[in-house]
Amino acid sequence: MSSVPDGKKLVRSPSGLRMVPENGAFNSPFSLDEPQWVPDKECPRCMQCDTKFDFIRRKHHCRRCGRCFCDKCCSKKVALPRMCFVDPVRQCAECGLVSQKEVEFYDRQLKVLLGGGTFVVTLGTSDKSETMTCRLSNNHRYLFLDGESHFEVELSRISSMQILTDGTSPGGGSARPSGMLLHYKPMGSQDVQQLRLEAVEDKKVASFWLAAMHKAAKLLYEARDQ
Known about the structure:
This protein has two domains: 8-112, Herpes Virus-1 (2-Layer Sandwich); 116-167 and 177-225, PH-domain like. The chain has a seven-stranded antiparallel beta sheet. A two-stranded antiparallel sheet has the order 1-2. Helix 1 (93-115) packs across helix 2. A hairpin with a 5-residue loop joins strand 7 (117-123) and strand 8. It has helices spanning 93-115, 203-224; strands spanning 8-13, 16-21, 59-61, 68-70, 77-78, 89-90, 117-123, 129-136, 142-146, 150-154, 158-165, 177-184, 193-199. With 226 residues, the protein is α+β, with helices and mostly antiparallel strands.
């Protein structure tokens, strides 16, 4: 399934232009659906400052949460890649802050995940391990593991993810990521499989990859709970 090309199409919604997969089944697991807008008749006042709307004070909808605000409380346009908008869109202050943090993930951490890291990989309770490169697929839907063998883990089928650490970093800071423990269901199976990754060789690159994967997991769980 991962070999199927993911074509894109440009669609126009009330919120703006979006570049989305032609087949909705190939949406990124990090993506969020557009919210239902609060109907105009149900919001006579700004849902932040309580200003009453009139011919001068117009109402605006936040493209992320769908709530209704005055221009002062919903004036900034911020990039919203999780909803595939081509251009920055109007958002309330609270949503704008969240979206700005997510833009950092798309600009930095996502590139790290696509670049990959090298790990010693152990499948299940096996005594055998293999050195493999683990990276996120270009469509963000799979983890590719390549070594002497090759296999894939679909992100949507991951049930739990735990980042492993090895003590504290120099200076007494937070512990540096050293590995990852995944539980997932292989394609065509309902049995949960365990996958353990431990950093090897360039541990600095692997540590950055694991830290990025930790942030990716937060977005993944949020998208599932939408």
